[in-house]
Amino acid sequence: MPKTPPSTLKSTVAEQIEHSVEKLKHISLEEERKPKKSKQKLSFNTSEAATDTQVIDTPDHGYCRPKLVQSKEQDDKVTISEMMERFSVNVSQMLFSAIGDKISMESKLATISTIYGMILHCHNVKACAVQRIFTALCIRYHADNKTTTVMVYIALLERLNKHIEHVQDDAMSQKSEVCWMPVLMKNETCYSDCIQIMKSYEKQILQWYTKGGRANDLDKLKIPVGGDQLTRVRLQGAKACQDGALTAADRLEHMEPIIVEMFHTLQDLLEKMYKRFYKTSSGRDKGTLYNLKLIIERSNVNGNVKSRFEAHEDFVLTVGNAYLLSFIMNKFGMETLDAEPQHPLLKNRNIKFMHNKYKEEVFHTIMGEIVEDLICTFPKLEPKVSLNVEIFNSQFTVNSTVGEGKMLKFELVINNQKVLFNVSLEDAQEGVNIELNMLNRRIPVRISINEKDRDDLQSYVFQFLQWYFVILTFKDAIKEGDSDRTNITLKFCIPIFFSHSILSKYLEECVDYILKTEVLLTEKLAMKVRYGSFVNLTGHKGENKAADLQKENEVLVLKELIRGLGSNKTEKAIDTITKAAPVIQDIVDNFDKMSNISHRNTHHRKRSSEGDIKCILKVIVPLKIWNYTEGRTLESFKKIKKSQFDFERCQFKEAINRKIQRLKRGISVPESSDEESDQE
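Now predict its structure.
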């Protein structure tokens, strides 16, 4: 492409310097330089007459007050050309006096011309900077009619709170005091070592309370102990081994209750999610998790959540966000994210100029529709089963519910007689033939479950979003330190873990946590347990984190200190350096703060989720996920259920009741029942 020729009206630098030199030649250099007069500033007093003006002398470095408008009817009106002439003379005189008389006249003129050109260049640069600012603002807000469209729909979100308030909001916004514990050379897989770990806790507590003059508080002291699932089971078993000891300290009575922590529960939930929706054989199934992983090239996602938790979590949140946006675009008839939403409440109504009360009404109405269409809750009643009944080549559709003993009961009227059918669910799934003897005649009846062709892709995405919403709620409840929402989320996790496997370990942990904090413990101790699951290191609102996640971060610091010992890794050296870890960490943090060294949270670059979401939308929007397509199948997810709550409720209730009765007696799940026997 040929370049655009330069404008003929634009002067070159050489021409500007030559013009400046010609102007300087007309200036009388021998003229006696007089000290310049002080600038005059006009000050208007509105209380006096309009014709009365006050002239105030100001020094040379004085600046005019902004937004002063001078009268146009002044007698001493100065034109712009005269002002420029005076300014040029003053500038030239100042430059001549600054240079001095030690150089020739030609050198003076060349130097002054160069300086004058630099002044003009600086002025142009500042003007360009201002112009760039306005240009950036126009680009930022599009500088077109789209700005109005965007602001109309942003106005619906103006009154939404960034934080969901709860009862202990103020208390959970205060900074937590975290005490580091030294490293113990013990192994949790051995009960004898677990007992030694618990006794070390008892010894440390006794030392603290004795030195603090609060030894009398030890009689009624209860301190919660938390960890992952294996830690809770092993410490609970170790504590049970000491029930026959003579003293309260030997019986470990101060270490109660022993509960599971939130971060490991969230991690296990994410792991179960990948086992449900992530299969390496689904690369050709468009719109699935593995297919989208290949498209956006997330090479750090391999399905092993424990190895790279943050990468897997970020990928799930990115895909869930894209699925949700595709639903919103389909509901509001938007072909692109920049399109105008189409909705009866938004049509022919200028929401921007409505009162906040009506904005909230519109917002809640629209959000109610979205929640009703998209959120699936645990059904209060037993879901009905559609049965196909065939009698003499005549087919009927009957709805029945699963009763006691997994039996399906329904009535039919045959030859003006009511007939009660009682069929097991397993027989109905395989198809069962029954012969009726009526009026000395055999009537064949075939009963089977009426299975329609499903839309596997829509069911896959719909169930994925249910898990996605639970994870979002769980993360937000932890950040806010909201124990009520945390317990509600754990109750949602119970059927989710059950749908994965009846032997899921964290299914029992969720039941145990809720049972202790809402039923077994006193109100004061339950409050202590629930709000002790979070820590706030900054003292800001909405910046809580799970206590076990903070412990994992402390372990990283301890490992770094132990690694720094080199070859001197003796048990005594490790014990000494880990006891000094909090002091060393404070010294390092203060040094970094005084040296203005920014803290790097990670060594890896985090990809922009916005670009990945747009890339995913280009793939899933043409699939029309939310338009039901009968018979659309996924090879790796055939007949996937639309809801995570689609299972046998009778079996679910029986399993939960058995776990509750066992946990009340203090019997934990055996360690041998691992996830190897998981069944979908």
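The CA atoms of residues 263 and 653 lie 27 Å apart.
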